[in-house]
Amino acid sequence: SKLTVVGAGAVGSSVAYASLIRKSARHVALYDIAAARVEAEVLDLAHGSQFTGSSDIIGGDDLDVTAGSHVIVITAGAAQKPGQTRTDLAGVNANILRSLVPNLLERSPDAVFVVVTNPADVMAVVAQEVSGLPRERVFSSGTVLDTSRLRWKIAQRAGVSISSVHAYIVGEHGDTEFPLWSHATIGTVPILEWVPQDGQPKFTVDELDQIAVDVRDAAYKVIQGKGATNYAIGLSGARIVEAILQDEHTVMPVSTVLEDFHGVSGVALSVPAVVSAAGAQPIRETTFSASELALFRRSADALREVAAGLS
Ligand code: NAI
User: If you write DSSP's letter for every residue of 95-135 in order, what string do you get?
Assistant: First the structure.
């Protein structure tokens, strides 16, 4: 199996690193237009080969290194600067994707495309349109990262392991995202009824609201401190790659272009989807409470506005 990561910046090199360590793909290629940067990253990763075992890494600034990929993760583009929103990046990054995707597709006609570049939901629509591929073959990592942030916070507070927390962030990967609290459980217990194992009080509604805000603003906090977010998105990307290459049919909140999903069409938003070798299939049976549905539509409207400002 072959994975290509496009963009050897903070995010792309971390996706490659996580994929090598986790053995997410047998072959990993890293591509960037910045030759010196990508060559250095590839060398640094290759120098660890003794400890990563069977996966290997190649790369450079020639698009031919991407040929024959089964999955292509796109991280190329300008990143959020402190104080900048993801949507500020839209125009610049849309143009990068419009020129990149046809070149990548020509060399890897069977690939599934995973867009990480922000604003990820808008970029997923741009990439899907320019590729002409079916909607399930081109999607964004969406709120997989945000969901991991949410589950981590809940697990800490509830006194359980993260795998015991069943909760999802849906909607935009950005400021209008929100948790599906109506379906959040620890084991099978609804979150508001959970009695923490360590003597802490039960969750309150106000506290859940604060957790949602903290998760939404998490990237701003990390970027403020270190200039980028990279490790957690690297792991999220590697995990999505595994679900595709292993044909796992794993449920993940990735962002696909929706077609009458609770009345929403033509924008990409994250909802729980089945991720497999065929790509990502949104789960149409996912239900929302009335307030969640209102938030979902608000998220769709926000993205429609960004998309309209593009072209
Ligand atoms: P970075 O600036 O460190 O790296 C971006 C890389 O893209 C650079 O090495 C640059 O040379 C390369 N690039 C630019 N144009 C290119 C082209 N046409 N072809 C190939 N490579 C090209 O930025 P960083 O921190 O790695 O972030 C990358 C993107 O990922 C940003 O848009 C950022 O906002 C996004 N991101 C998305 C997350 C998500 O959950 N969806 C999480 C974190 C970041």
Answer: HHHHHHHHHHHHH-TTPEEEE-SSSHHHHHHHHHHHHT--G
